[in-house]
């Protein structure tokens, strides 16, 4: 009943009438709030104004005029799909050249695509679209908010690099070996690409020598995040303490080696991040939450598992605006019937930028 | 909803706010009893006879140690919750479940305190995967699987390192909470051979429990499914015909024996008559018109022909064993055609049958329930975006069919519980889903009392969870493997 009241109150605040809610402060008081450490805490209040979170805590003073809403459920940050091809009809790629640093994945995005609704209904509120890792300098990633229609949040996230020979190699024109690819990469001087110094890079790798080359070439001043391909068991130790993405295994692909690798990477301090894109085909939007739940069960670390699709994923793409319920962040929130890592939990409502864009039929 | 027991310390069910299974208080009834009496009463309430078979299975697993696990709570059969829980294991088997610690033992060396391992969370039985993805293909040396090939014969010997790759897979399965699996072949032959239920040894190797199962693959879709269903029916019809032909043979053989006797008598008479007629010798061969070149003697009796023996048919014999109740049967029914034939076969031959997959079988749910045919559904279908599983589950349960959940012959690993939890989100009762992963498959596979429930005499393979229930991955999850 309380939830329904809240949703009905929010329903008029959908984009067409958004202006009316500007300046209003909403004080959301759900049963529990998923904190940045992944745990669910009771008695929390989340203050929202103009699509931003003003504060979170148990002893917040409600500003005068704030509207208080008690919510039945667990309020969690929207999931971040850290590397995705959703919302595009054709992959962002340019195969005619080895280096395409100015390519923007955003140019391949269709903001009217039906994928945005599907992603939203799976609790995914932020989607990082990456150019295909087919070029050594592959171009810029893009961050899009899901919902009824996509909304661009950043048209240039990180510069994607690729030293995955199976993707950048070309037996006719080269490079035909990893050594050749590394040489081309080091000559290219990625650090001088406008925007790289501020936004950092995202390096696709499948080999330890590629990791060392990227580090050597970019130095310590450039922010680097990693995308692991191939067999991370053979080189993952190089990424100790760093944020690295890995594809979600497909059906029947949770091999003992894969499971053990995930466990050991986590134990070594690699901050693992999941995304729905995979060379063998896109995963279902629901697979993102499944991967996190699986990681939690496997590692016994629900905090890291939750971060793999929220805060660490946001860090992976280079933003602190999404991925957690914290002061100053976007109010991209999902109200669940239980903790989002509980697969029996159902979505009751999704807020993007503080506006309810989706609510489940049974929430009324 | 979990039931409240009248006799022991239980709660009315998992408290959603109690995410880490904080110990619940002992029931008021027991608080009024003297402590030893209450402890005894609780022990009596949860104890049952230890089956000899289980002890034998434990011995097969190679478990040796005796110890007690103290947890915040444990889930007992019938939806009861015991809190706090002391689960004592002896050689891999649960020897005692109580709210109190086991007493110290007196030995010649003095008093020996029980070895107690304290853990935080709730204990529950490990999962029984009635349709495992543990790969057994190729373990027969690459030979083409024959209808009589037995998985039990292909299992590795119970020594460490006997099969490191298989042990790694078993270890991954156990860490995912699985304690028992059904192992069968996954090839496309109609008669796949003989599968078997296995537990896992102390060396992470599967060991067979119980008898073989006759495995059929009712795979395919469209017209291929119709053909496969007809082939299945024909296989059983042929087996019956085989038996009939053998019965005829027996009759013919009896008649042949009689005829032979009569022939010997009449031939003796014939020889006597030949002697009386003054012909020389009593040798039948000498009198043979063929050898002597003389005209055929019409009075000579004819020797009866021995009836031809029926051909040997191993596959048919196995089906006949199933018809005679000596083998239980599993049929993978990927279409309603196969489900229909399976029901027909049970009606005709009274088979002890479990249906796997049972696609489109909801239309036959009442018949399945009437004949006690259990169904194993494939959880991996949800990974492919198939959201009809929950509806099928509910339809079968509504009709009273026993439903188990399995990996669909795939390696789902730790996703098994996650996918099962999604069925709850899709509207299936949480307790129903839990039973479909534990007690129901245990019953369907003939493991009652050994697996699928925490009770005295059952396997000590357990899971420990810290969330609201085992599906909840927001809390701690571990599997306990007996030592």
Please tell me the overall pLDDT of chain B: 83
N-to-C SSE string of chain A, H for helix and E for strand: HHEEEEEEHEEEEEHHHEHEEHEHHHEEE
Gyration radius from CA atoms of chain A, angstroms: 21 Å
Q: What percentage of residues of chain A falls in helices of 4 or more residues?
A: 10-25%
Number of DSSP E strands of chain A: 18
Q: How many separate structural domains of chain B?
A: 2
Oligomer: heterodimer
- Globally, the shape of chain A reads globular
The name of the CATH superfamily of the largest domain in chain B reads: Metal-dependent hydrolases
Most extensive protein-chain contact, per-chain counts: A-B, 34 and 39 residues
Q: How many DSSP H or I helices of chain B?
A: 15
Main pleated sheet of chain B = 8 strands, mixed
SSE class of chain A? alpha/beta
Q: Could you tell me how far the N terminus lies from the C terminus of chain B, measured between alpha carbons in angstroms? A: 34 Å
Mean pLDDT score of chain A, rounded? 89
Gap from first CA to last CA of chain A: 7 Å
Structure keywords:
heterodimer, A: 364 residues, alpha/beta, 8-stranded mixed sheet, 11 helices, disordered N terminus, B: 483 residues, TIM Barrel, 2 domains, 19 strands
What does this structure look like?
The complex is a heterodimer of chains A (364) and B (483). With 364 residues, chain A is α/β, with parallel strands linked by helices. Chain A contains eleven helices and 18 strands. Helix content of chain A is 24%, strand content 27%. In chain A, the strands form three sheets. In chain A, strands 1, 2, 3, 4, 5, 16, 17 and 18 form an eight-stranded mixed beta sheet that branches. In chain A, strands 8-11-12-13-14-15 form a six-stranded mixed beta sheet, sandwiched between helices. In chain A, strands 6-7-9-10 form a four-stranded mixed beta sheet. In chain A, β14, α8 (256-267) and β15 (271-275) form a beta-alpha-beta unit. In chain A, α5 (178-188) runs parallel beside α7 (208-218). Chain A starts with a helix and ends in a 5-residue tail after the last strand. Chain B is an alpha/beta fold. Chain B folds into two domains: 2-126, no CATH class; 128-239 and 314-448, Metal-dependent hydrolases (TIM Barrel, Alpha-Beta Barrel). Chain B has helices at residues 28-31, 35-46, 52-61, 151-154, 164-175, 223-276, 284-287, 289-292, 314-323, 336-349, 365-370, 389-399, 415-425, 430-437, 439-444, and strands at residues 66-71, 73-75, 81-82, 85-90, 93-98, 105-107, 110-112, 116-118, 122-125, 127-129, 178-183, 191-200, 206-218, 328-333, 353-356, 374-378, 403-406, 462-465, 477-480. Chain B has an eight-stranded mixed beta sheet with strand order 10-11-12-13-14-15-16-17. A five-stranded mixed beta sheet of chain B has the order 3-2-9-18-19, with no helix packed on it. In chain B, α12 (389-399) links the parallel β16 and β17. In chain B, α6 crosses α9 (314-323) and α13 runs antiparallel to α14 (430-437). The two termini of chain B are 34 Å apart. Mean pLDDT of chain B is 83; it is low at 1-35 and 37-55. Chain A binds chain B through residues 38, 40, 251-257, 259-260, 284, 286-287, 290, 292-294, 296-298, 300, 302, 305-306, 338-346, and chain B through 16, 19, 133, 168-169, 171-172, 175-176, 380, 383-385, 410-415, 417-422, 424-425, 430, 467-469, 471-478.
């Amino acid at each position: 009943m309380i939830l329904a009241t809240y949703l009905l109150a929010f329903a008029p605040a959908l984009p067409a009438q958004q202006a009316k809610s500007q300046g209003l402060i909403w004080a959301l008081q759900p049963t529990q709030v998923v904190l940045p450490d992944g745990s669910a805490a009771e008695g929390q209040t989340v203050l929202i104004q103009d699509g931003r979170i003003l504060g979170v805590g148990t002893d917040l003073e409600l500003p005068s005029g704030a509207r208080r809403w008690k919510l039945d459920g667990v309020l969690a940050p929207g999931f971040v799909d850290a590397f995705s091809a959703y919302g595009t009809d054709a992959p962002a790629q340019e195969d005619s050249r080895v280096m395409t640093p100015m390519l923007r994945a955003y140019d391949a995005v269709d903001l009217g695509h039906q994928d945005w609704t599907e992603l939203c209904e799976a609790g995914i509120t932020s989607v990082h679209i990456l150019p295909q890792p087919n070029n050594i300098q592959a171009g810029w990633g893009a961050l899009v908010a899901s919902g009824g229609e996509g909304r661009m949040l950043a048209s240039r996230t990180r510069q994607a690099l690729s030293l995955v020979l199976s993707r950048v190699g070309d037996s006719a024109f080269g490079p035909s070996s990893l050594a050749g690819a590394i040489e081309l990469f080091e000559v290219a001087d990625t650090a001088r690409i406008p925007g790289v110094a501020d936004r950092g890079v995202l390096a696709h790798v499948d080999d330890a020598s590629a990791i060392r080359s990227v580090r050597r070439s970019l130095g310590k001043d450039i922010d680097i995040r990693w995308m692991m391909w191939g067999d991370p068991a053979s080189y993952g130790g190089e990424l100790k303490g760093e944020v690295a993405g890995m594809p979600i295994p497909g059906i029947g692909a949770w091999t003992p080696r894969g499971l053990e690798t995930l466990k050991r990477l986590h134990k070594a301090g690699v901050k693992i991040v999941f995304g729905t894109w995979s060379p063998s085909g896109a995963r279902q939007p629901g697979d993102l939450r499944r991967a996190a739940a699986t990681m939690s069960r496997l590692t016994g670390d629900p905090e890291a598992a939750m971060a793999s699709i929220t805060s660490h994923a946001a860090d992976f793409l280079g933003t602190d605006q999404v991925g957690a319920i914290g002061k100053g962040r976007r109010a991209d929130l999902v109200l669940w019937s239980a903790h989002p890592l509980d697969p029996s939990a159902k979505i009751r409502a999704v807020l993007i930028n503080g506006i309810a864009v989706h609510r489940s039929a049974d929430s009324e | 909803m979990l039931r409240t027991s009248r006799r022991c310390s239980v709660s009315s069910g998992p408290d959603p706010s109690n995410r880490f299974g904080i110990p619940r208080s002992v029931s008021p009834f027991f608080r009024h009893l003297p402590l030893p009496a209450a402890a005894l009463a609780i022990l009596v309430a949860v104890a049952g006879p230890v089956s000899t078979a289980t002890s034998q299975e434990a011995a097969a697993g190679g478990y040796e140690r005796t110890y007690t696990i103290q947890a915040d709570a444990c889930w007992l059969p019938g939806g009861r919750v015991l809190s706090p829980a002391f689960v004592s294991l002896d050689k891999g088997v649960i020897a005692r479940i109580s709210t109190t610690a086991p007493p110290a033992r007196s030995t010649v060396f003095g008093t020996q305190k029980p070895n107690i391992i304290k853990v935080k969370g709730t204990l529950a039985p490990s999962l029984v995967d009635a349709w495992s993805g543990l790969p057994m293909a190729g373990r027969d040396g690459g030979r083409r699987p024959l209808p009589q090939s037995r998985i039990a014969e292909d299992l590795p010997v119970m020594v460490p390192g006997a099969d490191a790759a298989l042990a790694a897979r078993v270890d991954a399965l156990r860490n995912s909470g699985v304690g028992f699996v059904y192992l069968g072949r996954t090839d496309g032959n109609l008669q796949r051979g003989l599968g078997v239920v296995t537990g896992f040894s102390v060396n992470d190797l599967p060991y067979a429990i119980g008898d073989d199962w006759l495995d059929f693959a009712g795979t395919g879709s469209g017209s291929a499914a119709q053909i496969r269903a007809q082939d299945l029916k024909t296989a059983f019809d042929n087996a019956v015909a085989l038996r009939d032909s053998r019965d005829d043979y027996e009759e013919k053989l009896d008649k042949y024996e009689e005829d032979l006797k009569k022939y010997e008598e009449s031939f003796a008479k014939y020889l006597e008559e030949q002697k009386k007629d003054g012909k020389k010798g009593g040798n039948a061969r000498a009198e043979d018109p063929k050898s002597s070149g003389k005209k055929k003697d019409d009075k000579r009796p004819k020797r009866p022909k021995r009836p031809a023996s029926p051909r040997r048919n191993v596959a048919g014999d196995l089906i006949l064993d199933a018809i005679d109740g000596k083998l239980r049967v599993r049929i993978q029914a990927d279409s309603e055609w196969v489900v229909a034939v399976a029901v027909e076969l049970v009606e005709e031959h009274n088979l002890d049958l479990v249906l796997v997959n049972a696609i489109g079988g909801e239309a036959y749910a009442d018949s399945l329930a009437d004949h006690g045919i259990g169904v194993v559904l494939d959880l991996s279908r949800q990974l492919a975006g198939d959201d009809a599983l929950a509806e099928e589950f509910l339809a079968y349960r509504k009709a009273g069919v026993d439903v188990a959940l399995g990996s669909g012959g795939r390696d789902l690993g730790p996703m098994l519980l996650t996918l099962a939890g999604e069925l709850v989100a899709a509207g299936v009762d949480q307790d129903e889903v839990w039973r479909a992963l534990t007690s129901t498959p245990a019953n369907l596979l003939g493991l009652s009392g050994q697996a699928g429930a925490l009770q005295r005499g059952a396997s000590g393979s357990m899971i420990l969870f810290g969330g609201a229930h085992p599906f909840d991955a927001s809390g701690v999850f571990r599997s306990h493997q007996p030592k």
